[in-house]
């Protein structure tokens, strides 16, 4: 009988271990996928793609065991060789091949030139063959950076006393209301895919005080734009015992500062690959919704057409204004009109036409919506009634408030949008692993 006692030790090294090796000429063993092959007569350069980047290996005819004709792009191999310093190679090291073993060979040539520095093909082609296109170093780097965003979100909120939760994505009632719902039958009962974990987040504030979640949300919006998806990942948090919605904005600012520092240290290689210059979140300006519209209209001679919402062009102009006037890539737009916010949004006591809520614009695009919530049971009931909404499906949510809740608020951040603006892409599908939109259900 065999027993397992932990992670298996291996003599196969990864790039960080190779970089840590001090003895030049040391014999090492590595595994990876053949990213590219450059043949130069009796010498061939075999570039391996590994989880930490690219590794250059050198095959010299007559000095290595194995036939180079057995190697192809996308082969997976095990290579044993001599580790050498080489400043022209990725990471400043290379391996002089002594012998290699093909672990698996591709059944067909690659459909995309993933070994090239830039994957010069259409977005549709990249999405149709997503698992292949992401083998390109630049394409892969976007999602390493996205990992850093999520990691920063988790790490920062853990440090601030938040508890991570996981809420259902199938429910009887939507948090946001409206017609943009994916409806389905759930064992002969009507159900919806959740647009947001909002109701559950609020309920859990009464349990843990501070909660957060990263997970998918679903919007049945018939938009075919560069900024919309029908399924995206939302970074949500909710916190109790707040003094005002400004506490929520301050917490998000702290997260952004932490996340940007993390990217600058642990993900610098990916930032350099993509040529990303990180923004400064040291001080983020705040402006009221109505004033933001006026500023953009005045400076850029644009007529205000919709007094109750921000149009995409207005978001872009407001972002441009605060970049030009204050050098800030971020701006909080506060006090959104009540009629454009959900029933649980706290109205401004000074003027009930507006709410104690905000959006965060990043380089002219809304990436966050948040604010203070109604925590008083009767006030919630009155707001539902005033909007002509029923309590069907909201009974347990309302019961939470019937038995006492602290002042609280929270937000949701669109992960793919944040990544898109951070890395300088123009289409949110570029920073979505497997996008779901009006026409795409595969892969």
UniProtKB/TrEMBL annotation:
Q: Which residues are ATP-binding?
A: 219-221, 227-229, 366, 414-417
> Mind telling me which InterPro entries this protein's record contains?
Aa-tRNA-synt_II, aa-tRNA-synth_II, aa-tRNA-synth_II/BPL/LPL, Asp-tRNA_synthase_2, Asp/Asn-tRNA-synth_IIb, NA-bd_OB-fold, NA-bd_OB_tRNA
Q: Which residues bind L-aspartate?
A: 176, 219, 369, 373
Which ranges carry the Aminoacyl-transfer RNA synthetases class-II family profile domain? 143-443
For region Aspartate, the annotated ranges are 198-201
Query: Might you report a single GO cellular component term?
Result: aminoacyl-tRNA synthetase multienzyme complex
- Catalyzed reactions: tRNA(Asx) + L-aspartate + ATP = L-aspartyl-tRNA(Asx) + AMP + diphosphate
Q: Does the keyword Iron apply?
A: no
What are the site positions for Important for tRNA non-discrimination? 90
Coiled-coil segments on the chain, per record:
none
Q: Which UniProt keywords apply?
A: Aminoacyl-tRNA synthetase, ATP-binding, Cytoplasm, Ligase, Nucleotide-binding, Protein biosynthesis
UniProt record, GO biological process: aspartyl-tRNA aminoacylation
Q: What is its EC number?
A: 6.1.1.23
Report the subcellular localization. Cytoplasm
Q: How does it assemble?
A: Homodimer.
NCBIfam families listed in its UniProt record = aspS_nondisc, PRK05159.1
Q: What does this protein do?
A: Aspartyl-tRNA synthetase with relaxed tRNA specificity since it is able to aspartylate not only its cognate tRNA(Asp) but also tRNA(Asn). Reaction proceeds in two steps: L-aspartate is first activated by ATP to form Asp-AMP and then transferred to the acceptor end of tRNA(Asp/Asn).
Which protein is depicted?
Answer: Aspartate--tRNA(Asp/Asn) ligase
Q: Upper lineage ranks? A: Bacteria, Bacillati, Bacillota, Clostridia, Lachnospirales
């Amino acid at each position: 009988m065999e027993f397992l006692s932990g992670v298996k030790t291996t003599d196969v090294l990864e790039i960080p271990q190779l970089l840590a090796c001090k003895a030049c000429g040391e014999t090492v063993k590595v595994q990876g996928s053949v990213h590219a092959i450059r043949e130069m007569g009796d010498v061939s350069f075999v570039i391996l793609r590994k989880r930490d980047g690219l590794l250059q290996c050198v095959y010299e005819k007559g000095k290595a065991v194995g036939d180079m004709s057995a190697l192809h792009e996308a082969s997976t191999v095990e290579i044993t060789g001599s580790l050498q310093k080489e400043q022209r190679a990725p990471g400043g090291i290379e391996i002089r091949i002594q012998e290699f073993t093909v672990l698996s060979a591709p059944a067909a040539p690659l459909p995309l030139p993933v070994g090239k520095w830039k994957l010069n093909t259409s977005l549709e082609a990249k999405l149709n063959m997503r698992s292949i296109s992401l083998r390109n170093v630049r394409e892969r780097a976007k999602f390493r950076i996205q990992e850093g965003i999520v990691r920063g979100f988790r790490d920062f909120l853990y440090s601030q006393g938040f508890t991570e939760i996981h809420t259902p994505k199938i429910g009887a009632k939507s948090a946001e209301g409206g017609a943009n719902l994916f409806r389905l039958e759930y064992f002969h009962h009507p159900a919806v895919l959740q647009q947001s974990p909002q109701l559950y987040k609020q309920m859990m504030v009464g349990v843990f005080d501070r909660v957060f979640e990263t997970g998918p949300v679903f919007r049945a919006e018939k938009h075919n734009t560069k900024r919309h998806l029908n399924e995206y990942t939302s970074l949500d948090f909710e916190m109790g015992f707040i003094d005002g919605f400004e506490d929520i904005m301050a917490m998000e600012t702290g997260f952004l500062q932490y996340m940007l520092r993390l990217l600058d240290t642990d993900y610098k290689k990916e930032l350099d690959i993509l040529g990303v210059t990180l923004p400064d979140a040291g001080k983020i300006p705040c402006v009221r919704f109505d004033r933001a519209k006026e500023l953009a209209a005045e400076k850029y001679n644009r007529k205000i057409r919709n007094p109750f919402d921000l149009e995409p062009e207005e978001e872009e102009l407001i972002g441009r204004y605060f970049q030009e006037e204050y050098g800030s890539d971020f701006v909080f737009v506060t006090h959104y009109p009540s009629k454009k916010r959900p029933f649980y949004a706290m109205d401004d006591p000074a003027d009930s036409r507006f709410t104690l809520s905000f959006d965060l614009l990043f380089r002219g695009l809304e990436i966050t919506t948040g604010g203070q919530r109604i925590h008083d049971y009767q006030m919630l009931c009155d707001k539902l009634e005033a909007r002509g909404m029923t309590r069907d499906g909201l009974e347990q949510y309302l019961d939470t408030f019937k038995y006492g809740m602290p002042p609280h608020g929270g937000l949701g951040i669109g992960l793919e949008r944040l990544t898109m603006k951070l890395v300088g892409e123009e289409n949110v599908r570029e920073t979505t692993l497997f996008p779901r939109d009006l026409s795409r259900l595969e892969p």
